Structure formats: structure tokens, C-alpha cells
Amino acid sequence: MTDAATQFAHPRASWLDPADGRIRDERELLTAMADRQVVLLGETHSVLEIHRWQLHVATVLRFLRPHIAVGFEMFPRRVQPVLDEWIEGGLSTAAFLDKVEWGAVWGFDAELYLPLFHFCRRHRVPMLALNCHRPLVTRVGKDGWDAVPEDERDGLTPSAPATLAYRRYLAGLRFDRPATGEVDPSLVTDRFIRAQQTWDRAFACNIAKALDAADPPLVIGIIGRGHLEYGHGAPYQLRDLGVSSIGVLLPTASDHHDAASMVGIGDAVFRLDEPEPEIVPPGMAEMIAGARRKAANT
């Protein structure tokens, strides 16, 4: 049984500091985040309440620092011209989703993300395609980075090597074990690690590219939390690319947290309302579970 002293209480509608469990002042926290180069907003893709939270945070950050861009894991780099066309008002919602091949490329219900897309369009906030060509992930996982010719790497550079801590984290994530525990890293294969890092590197490379400007925007990243937690994933790859001013904000529906598991998870964690049922298209849950099993065991 866990000692009560190791638990952080987390009231609704508040930001918790994972380092010590104190409740942060929202104005102070988000003002500090607006001064970063990058603020990454983690998500569970199928939870509507999380996307509402992302929209609210993006709105506040834009008020504090109007020059922003919003990057999305959901879009591969090849559809960037479509995102630009959408922002300029040249497409209907239906035409936009069709041209980015939403159903084939992402598959989660578009209603989860449309408020974010319309926020960007309404305020002419650039949308950034952060992902890579999906077959590249499969190819790197199977054959390794060096086996891919340079002109077929979708603009990416090689990933910084995975740390032991990241391997343990991914093994814990895959088998639902404590993220900070001594999980056997051999539970996940090198193939799985390489694939995961290809996504991480894609997000980092495309964010870094947006920052390589005379007047760089604050880049807000809409990315799955498994790519962000504990400084692993995309933040680790961003630091390898020389981007060091990074904020990671995460949502939760829990009213208490184990203190040991919270240390280093991110800069702050927001307590949501109790989420509504997840919106998962028919067959998606089985497809995701099957893909994870295949990646972990091949």
C-alpha cells in the first residue's frame, strides 16, 4: 500500500508541478511557457476533453505571444501545401480532410481535431505537418537508418541514440508497467525502438525547421504523450538538434498521483474534467493493439 506522503493531491482545473506537487499559478506558468521556443501539448488521441484543453492552452499562448505556429503529429510533411491552402481559406472542411487523406493517414474521428484546425484557420496561425512518410518508419524499423538512401529519408537526419531510460520507458508503456520502474528494456525490440525514434526525430526535425527563421514563432506541438514524457522522445531529439527551450504540458483526469512517477514527466500537468467516453472508430482499438503487438515482437 502506498504511503499517503508519497501522493500528490490534484484538484480539478489546476496545474500541478510534477517536481514537488505544488499547484502552479496559471498566469505565471503560461507566461513562462510563452517565452519558450517550443511548447509541446501531450495527448491521448481519442479523448475529446484533451483536445479541448489543447485548444484552450493554444488560445492563451497566442494571446501572450501572437506569433505562433501549431504543429501536428497527424499530418505527414508531404501534405504541408494542403495545410497552407486551408489556412488561406481555399478549402471547405470536407475538401481539406479529403486532400490530407485524413481517413487513411490518421483515422481518428476528425471531430476531435476540427476545433484546433478552425482555430488556426480563423486566426491565420500557420499549421505545420510534423510527421514523416509512414513507410519510412517501417523501413527504418526493419532495416535500420543506414539502409535508407539519403534522398528517401523525407528530409530527416539520423536519430540521436536511444537512452536506456527511454528503452525502459517504452517497455513500460508497451506492457503497462510503471514508467519510472526498473522495466526490462529487452521486452521491446530494437526494431520497435528504431520505429519509435523515427517518429520522434520527424517531429523534432520539422519543428526545428520552423524555428530556423529570422523571426521564429513559438511552435506549439500537438503530439501523443508517449513521444513527450520524461524528456524522452521528441524533446530528446530536439535537444540533439540544438533546441533547448522546450516546455512539455500534459493533461490528466486523476485526482491523486504517485510522487515518484511524476518527477520529470513534464513541466506541469493540468487536471481535466472527467473525460467523456473515448471516440475510437470501429476497428481502430484492435488495429492499434495489433500494431503495437507486432512492433514489439518483430
- What share of the residues does DSSP label as strand, in percent? 15-25%
Distance between the termini: 37 Å
Radius of gyration: 19 Å
Number of strands: 10
Largest sheet: 8 strands, mixed
Q: What fraction, in percent, of the residue positions are helical?
A: 40-55%
Which class of secondary structure composition applies to the elements? alpha/beta
The CATH class turns out to be: Alpha Beta
Count of discrete structural domains: 1
Mean pLDDT: 92
Q: What is the overall silhouette?
A: globular
The CATH level-2 architecture is identified as: 3-Layer(aba) Sandwich
Strand arrangement across the biggest beta sheet? 3-2-10-8-4-7-5-6
Low-confidence runs: 289-298
CATH topology tier name: Rossmann fold
| Helix count from the secondary structure assignment | 12
Along the chain, the helix and strand elements come as: EEEHEHEHHHHEHHHEHEEHEH
Verbal overview:
The chain is α/β, with parallel strands linked by helices. The chain has helices at about 25-35, 50-65, 80-85, 95-100, 100-105, 115-120, 135-145, 165-175, 190-210, 235-240, 260, 285-295, and strands at about 5-10, 15, 25, 40-45, 70-75, 125-130, 220-225, 245-250, 255-260, 270. It has one domain: Rossmann fold (3-Layer(aba) Sandwich). The strands form two sheets. Strands 3-2-10-8-4-7-5-6 form an eight-stranded mixed sheet, sandwiched between helices. Strand 2 and strand 3 (about 25) form a beta hairpin. The chain is globular. It starts with 6 loop residues before the first strand and ends with a helix.
